[in-house]
Amino acid sequence: MFLDYFALGVLVFVAIFLFYGIIALHDIPYEIAKKRNHPHQDAIHYAGWVSLFTLHVLWPFLWIWATLWREDRGWGFTQIQNEQHELHHEVLKLNKQIEKLSEKVTQLELTQARQAAANTTESSSETRGER
Fold first, then answer.
1. First to last CA, the chain
2. What are residue 70's phi and psi, to 5 degrees?
3. What CA–CA distance (Å, rounded) separates 70 from 76?
4. Quick one: which H or E segment has residue 131?
5. Can you give the pLDDT at residue 85?
6. What residues contact residue 8 under an 8 Å CB cut-off, 6+ apart?
7. Quick one: pLDDT at residue 131?
8. What letter would DSSP give residue 69?
9. Which of 32, 37, 54, 122, by CA, is between 20 and 30 Å from 104?
10. What is the Cα–Cα distance from 70 to 72, expressed in whole angstroms?
């Protein structure tokens, strides 16, 4: 008789423990959002409760949603945009440098061609004068 009541007590304890354990598990994304001062923490909290009724399908997405936000950098996209902006300006600078270098190479090729033409003219006139 005592073992029956003991077994019933253990079953009730396990059921209550599992019930509160599942609720605590589904509050993890909300706790993360609250700790990070997430702007959508209420929505994450409510979606955690909805996830209880959708067989926990939403829970991994809630966890991801809660961890994406950081108070110091927000969603993190502005940093990427700033880096892309800086890279764009560096590429423009490099393009200008390449254009300048191309112009210098063209000028050097022209002066070299002129000097070669002048040397050819001098050598042909020297050969005519020697004859």
1. 138
2. -130, 135
3. 8
4. none
5. 87
6. none
7. 52
8. -
9. 122
10. 6
Looking at 35, 60, 75, the residue that finishes a domain is 75
| Owning domain of residue 38 | 1-75
Give pLDDT tens digits for 80-124: 778 888 999 999 999 999 999 999 999 999 999 999 888 887 777
Q: What is the pLDDT of residues 45-77, one digit of tens each?
A: 999 999 988 988 999 999 999 999 888 778 877
Which 3 state secondary structure label does DSSP give 70? Answer: strand
Verify that 93 and 129 share a domain, yes or no.
Answer: yes
CB atoms within 10 A of CB 36: 16
pTM score, whole prediction: 0.55
Q: Report the amino acid identity of residue 4.
A: D
Note the pLDDT of residue 77: 72
What are φ and ψ of residue 74, in 5° steps?
70, -135
Rounded CA-CA distance 95/63 in Å is 44
Q: How far apart are CA 34 and CA 49, in angstroms?
A: 16
* pLDDT-derived band at 130, boundaries 50, 70, 90: low
What are the distances in angstroms from CA 3 to CA 31, 41, 99? 40, 46, 91
